[in-house]
Amino acid sequence: MGKLFQELQKQLDTTDKIDAENCIMIYDNLKELYDGKVWETKWNTLVDCTCVGVYPNFRHVHKPSKVGVIFLKGIFN
């Protein structure tokens, strides 16, 4: 999960900026909940990841899953 935050930062420069911002909020809250760690099992439940492009020029696109959207709504209430 070390490169995950870097991938999210790169995604901020694309058309998927809003999804990246939401995923960064999820990332930060998971990090706070689990003592500075983001466990892959928790992350994969809250975020969907797809690959866009063709090797070797592909990138990962992260966006909140349906459960992740509910998680974000809970953060703001």
Structural write-up:
The protein has 77 residues and is of the alpha+beta class. The chain has one domain (4-76). The chain has helices at 4-11, 17-33, 40-46, 66-76, and strands spanning 47-54, 57-64. The chain has a two-stranded antiparallel ribbon. Helix 1 runs antiparallel to helix 2.
Residue ranges: pLDDT <50 for 5 or more in a row?
A: none
Q: Please indicate the count of domains.
A: 1
Helix amount, in percent?
A: 55-70%
N-to-C series of helices and strands: HHHEEH
Which structural class best describes the helix and strand composition? alpha+beta
* Shape call: globular
Largest sheet: 2 strands, antiparallel
Helix-strand blueprint:
Layout: H1 4-11, H2 17-33, H3 40-46, E1 47-54, E2 57-64, H4 66-76
Antiparallel strand pairs: 1-2
Properties at a glance:
single chain, two-stranded antiparallel ribbon, 21% strand
Question: What is the gist of this entry?
Answer:
With 77 residues, this protein is an alpha+beta fold. 56% of the residues lie in helices and 21% in strands.
